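During the first year of the project, the team set up a workflow for recording each protein of interest as an amino acid sequence followed immediately by a discrete structure-token representation. This format lets reviewers and collaborators read both layers of information side by side without switching files. As required by the reporting guidelines, we include two representative entries from the current panel. The first entry is reproduced here exactly as it appears in our internal archive.
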Amino acid sequence: MTEDKSQETPSSHRVATSGDIEVSTYLEIAKELGGEQPAAAKEAIPGNERETIVVIDFGSQYSLLIARRIRECQVYCELVSYDTPWEKITPLNPKGFILSGGPASVYTPEAPLAPAYIYESNLPVLGICYGMQVITHQLGGKVTQGERHEYGHSVLHVADVDSPLLADLPTPAPVWMSHGDQIEEMPPGFSTLAYTEGSPFAVMGNDKRIFGLQFHPEVAHTPNGKTILKNFAYRICGCQGNWTMGSFIRDSLDRIKEQVGGGKVINALSGGVDSAVVATLIHQAIGNQLTCIFVNNGLLRRQEAERTLKVFRRHLGMNTIHVDASERFLNRLQGVIDPEQKRKVIGEEFIKVFEEEAAKISKVDFLAQGTLYPDVIESASSGSKASAKIKTHHNVGGLPAKMTLNLVEPLRYLFKDEVRQVGLGLGLPEEMIWRQPFPGPGLAIRIIGEVTREKLEILRSADWIVMEEIKQAKLYRQLWQSFAVLTDVKSVGVMGDFRTYGYLVAVRAVTSDDAMTADWARLPYELLAKISNRIVNEVPGVNRVVYDITSKPPSTIEWE
């Protein structure tokens, strides 16, 4: 094994914004929703053809992070499986390849290896961890099982200060290791560019612009890792940095117009940033050919339906159908306790409601979805199979194939932070752009046990207090998610000299980049005390509050 999957990528604690151009058109919306003045994404460099760094995925848990880091350098990047044919690579206009890490060992019979075109293309190649071992193995070096594994922090010493790959890198520099195999002999023509105490060939390279790193530059615990990746993209591959959200918006508007033509599109509006950006992007492209359907399933947070409809109807001028199906969903959930069954019931009922409303609209040709790049990767490494089906975890809940609608998925190659930048560029209010992720099943999976009207009101009240105090403390944007959970535990308490037997509410707050891993947020004690005090005094039926201090893994972010 070359990569220990138990080692989790450290998460950063903020999502950074980019751009500082004023978008005054939407000041009124932002003011009404309590948001600050929005900022626009930076404009694209005009007249440049898209250039791509292609990441060859060997199954590393960090592969998506590589793509994210390259895109942060304003260079487009796609992740493809190691068995992707050249015919699917060439349209991307590749400028270089990065071979990811992975759990295999290159010397085993079934180990995945790089396709021949990687080396025949004469394009620059960077191997990371297992990717470095693949290069070594295929080009005549020797990889063996290490006498000891090397996991965690290490110190990198630069041996070749003139290497363009290591330009501007301090020496020594902290790096993050996660491997069990080791390179015993470098391939012919390669030399050592940097080393650590445990890895004499921590960085290697040759004059054909093929490089290898034994550590992971993409993770947060390699502080200068982005410098190395940027050097590879700019100094080695010659990229110009023309991947911006401004260029993406312009290209997307053209593509949507071309795909849809004179057809009609429906979009399931959830109020979340993904569906909001999809709706706004499509609406700017085709106007009234788009109809949004907002289904209130009775499992939303306080004022959520009203705020969402107000923005889309009054300010953005979209055709929006509002369906209040609260009673239908709550009736279906009676007696349901198992969380997976809750999800199934909610998904099935949503399909029925959505189909009923879609049938009322004259001929519909397309279904818009907020599919993101991580969703594509989960379905198929190359993304080639993802468009053939509508996945149940998307915002429409998994519509049946009999609807025979073509998909419009303008965000399918974006990460969540990039979606937010598109939203800013489109002028959406910041309150909507920076809205924390909210699960499709809504509050149903934040109520442990059966969902009832009484429990929903208790949870809405507690969650409202959590949100108010988090925002008052100006911590909302620093957190990936923060919310209340109504447990099925009751405990004894004393309030006003009387014995009580009330519910236990748990407060959950985490930091993360993308929800693949998450760390519990170290909220100030004073803030936690204020939240607890308000909940037990203002929410009837609750007499105890606890704070969840478990990271992901081993826990998930949501409780159910």
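The second entry, processed by the same pipeline in the following quarter, appears below.
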Amino acid sequence: MTLDTDHSLILDAPAAVPEDTALCQSWQEILLNRTLIIASNRGPVSFTRDEAGELQSHRSGGGLVTALSGLAEYADACWIATAQTEEDRAWREGMVPLGESGSALRVKFISPEAKAYEGFYHVIANPLLWFLQHSMWDIVRAPTINRKIWESWDNGYVSVNRLFAEAICEQIIAAPQPALVMLQDYHLYLAPGFIREKLRSRAKYTLMFFVHIPWPGAEDWGLLPSKMRRAILEGLCAADLLGFQTAEDGMNFIRTCESHLPEARVNFKRGRIWYRNHSTHVRDFPISIDVAALDRLAASPEVAEFHDQLTERYGRQQLILRIDRTEPSKNIVRGFHAFDELLELHPEHRGNVRFLALLVPSRIEVEEYQKYLDEIMGVIGQINVKYGSSDWEPVRILVGEDYPRAVAALQLYDVLLVNSLADGMNLVAKEGPIVNHCNGVLILSERTGARQQLEPGALIIPPLDIYATAEAMHQALTMPLAERRERADRLRWLIERDDIVAWLCQQLETIAQLNL
């Protein structure tokens, strides 16, 4: 897509919303009388320059962008995000037409100073908050809250959240009707509090906040310095509706407020927190995938070509598959140790099963991630030396981000391993059963958000137990076809019933029910 001279571009068509779904009966009415403001660290589009020096736009991937931008079909909408490139900064703000519908989404980039963004994103959001919320701190050694972290907090995380709040407030004040603000994820924990502080009663608006990653227990949050912890809790308690991936995450948030925000009054039964004369409603809205878009991609010639290549290489043997970013929370190394245990305990699988791992390098600028990738490569080498032969390579790894190739691999697995230490949801666990052609079995960590919905069709494992994981692999590889088919059908039904559109509808319906 090429940038036009009037700063407009065309974004791919949004997900269609089923108007006859009972769940969605009133959400269009909600948006009809609201101005919609979406805020996230990364936006729905980004820009680069081609060889001729002209600006080129690129739609961001994922169902979240598709679904949220699709709301602009029914509302005057603005999406606020941080500029990721110099070209984003040059764009600053403009309208993005949505497909051929005639509706449009305004995209507005904020541009923090480089040092502020470095502290905001690379020091506080990642790794400090990310590691805390995935229960990955090695508290004997790390983190150490030193002067650099405090400077990154004060001059990075706090300042960038204020920039977001100011940009959102400008949109709220300028809106011709009440605003519905949808803030996304752990980057923006402070923004709701700053918005209420700035606007007070000058405008009518509703603040929604959705946390995409896990929310650990109050004892984990007790390790964070009280100033940071209190600011985060106060910021989130300024939201009207606070959404989490699972009911457990929501309960953990209420417990955290009960323990660390003593002035707050909590009601577990109603899922409500009363703080500073304001009521925050806490709910779980498990995020999902755009099933229709995934089906279209799975039927594409590009995926078919990868499917043929992978079938030629792996089609004669059973296939265990994992697809992950190379993050320590994904527990990749233990997954390979479990495969080693499988081959040791059940030698009949030697020469008959292959483990294919599609890994996407993640946050390679963070030292912990670099070390973890080295550890992954080391354990793969050990397994291949220990069990491999001239005609059988037990583990094959493909590194790099290639979504059509990943979809093709998902069509072919006999076993899909998702053994994360902690995951907000893990959408691979939902993508796999939708496109798989082999009645593949899902092995799912009990610490993933997806467990809440998918447990009836999956084999559930404790992520630290490599023996249990190895035995689950054996069970999956030897499972009778009828049981495999029954489990696969159950998973598909669960995922199709609650797709990305249902996720959005549930949030908007909750606003209507609570009269927010």
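For the second entry, the following points were noted during internal review. The chain has 19 helices and 18 strands. The radius of gyration is 23 Å. Both points are flagged for discussion at the upcoming steering committee meeting.
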